[in-house]
Design a protein that fits this description.
Mean pLDDT: 87
Number of domains: 2
Largest sheet: 6 strands, mixed
Order of helices and strands: HEHEHEHHEHEEHHHHH
Structural class: alpha/beta
Strand order of the largest sheet: 3-2-1-4-6-5
CATH superfamily of the largest domain: P-loop containing nucleotide triphosphate hydrolases
CATH architecture of the largest domain: 3-Layer(aba) Sandwich
CATH topology of the largest domain: Rossmann fold
Distance between the termini: 28 Å
Number of strands: 6
């Protein structure tokens, strides 16, 4: 994976860290969105540290694209007395009805104090955090009932904080999504690139696709073979990830002059099909606990 995917915009992270710190005192809870396909890789450690003392809802978003057994295991792993973890899909709306009851339960003592003071029906406030392109704006639009947050299928669209009212008794504070300055593990950078959290136009698309080939060959060989009509999957000793990408391009007929395979076209196709869930329900992060 090119080194350019490992270093990212510390200035943007500093601005977001400051925004979060300044506004935490104004909210009752934090809603953190993770990509269900990469729960470890999509959890910004800087945000987790800042929000550690607030009641939290963790949404494993895009769950319809992830391996269901792995997602269930991560949901159980992240849940504790101060955190509720919910599987969601902000496009279809799956799981979103569980958010408001979960926040009210986590903030039960505060709501009781409001009622004692006669402040019945007062809205709770929640901060929405997460990395780019994980679905924050889609979440807000879905539960606000209006197109309040700008949505595009690319990272870095929300650049400043914004308050949004909803019909579920919760005010949402949307924070810009940003990656942390340095990935200690190259696999994290690769996973973020594969899922689209990092802009494709500043990366080597063939390197990203080769990394995905390696993940699929190791973790989901049956789905890989079925999608691309590969009868016998070559072992890493027989063919490296570039060779596998070339084979996929050949199966799709991406030939150019001289009989060569257009591997750039194959790379873009592979990433598009993975992100759309066409290869199957796939989780790239391997749980470090028993599934």
């Amino acid at each position: 994976m090119p080194s350019q995917t490992i270093q990212w915009f510390p200035g943007h992270m500093a601005k977001t860290r400051r925004l979060i710190s300044e506004n935490l005192k104004n909210v009752d809870a934090v809603i953190e969105l993770l990509d269900a396909r990469i729960p470890y890789s999509s959890q910004n450690p800087e945000i987790r540290k800042l929000c550690a003392n607030k009641p939290s809802i963790i949404l494993l978003n895009k769950a319809s694209l992830a391996d269901p057994a792995v997602t269930r295991a991560f949901a159980a792993h992240f849940s504790n007395e101060n955190t509720v973890c919910i599987e969601t899909d902000c496009i279809s709306g799956h799981g979103l009805s569980k958010i408001a009851p979960a926040i009210r339960e986590l903030c039960g003592e505060k709501l009781a104090r409001y009622e004692e003071k006669g402040m019945i029906g007062r809205s709770l406030k929640a901060m929405v955090v997460g990395i780019p392109n994980v679905g924050k704006s889609s979440l807000i639009n879905k539960i606000s009932g209006n197109k309040k947050a700008k949505v595009e299928n690319r990272p870095g669209v929300t650049l400043n904080k914004q308050w949004v009212g909803t019909d579920i008794g919760i005010m949402l504070l949307d924070m810009p999504g940003v990656l942390w300055p340095k990935f200690e593990d190259a696999t994290v950078g690769e996973n973020l690139a594969i899922t689209g959290a990092i802009k494709d136009d500043i990366l080597d698309v063939e390197s990203i696709a080769m990394a995905l080939c390696g993940r699929l060959r190791e973790q989901y060989p049956a789905e890989l073979c079925a999608r691309y009509k590969i009868t016998v999957l070559p072992s890493p000793n027989e063919a490296d990830n570039y060779d596998l990408l070339t084979l996929i391009g050949k199966k799709r007929g991406f030939c150019i002059s001289g009989g060569e395979i257009d591997t750039e076209r194959a790379a873009n196709m592979l990433l598009d099909e993975f992100r759309a869930g066409k290869i199957g329900r796939i989780s790239l992060d391997i749980p470090k606990f028993e599934v």
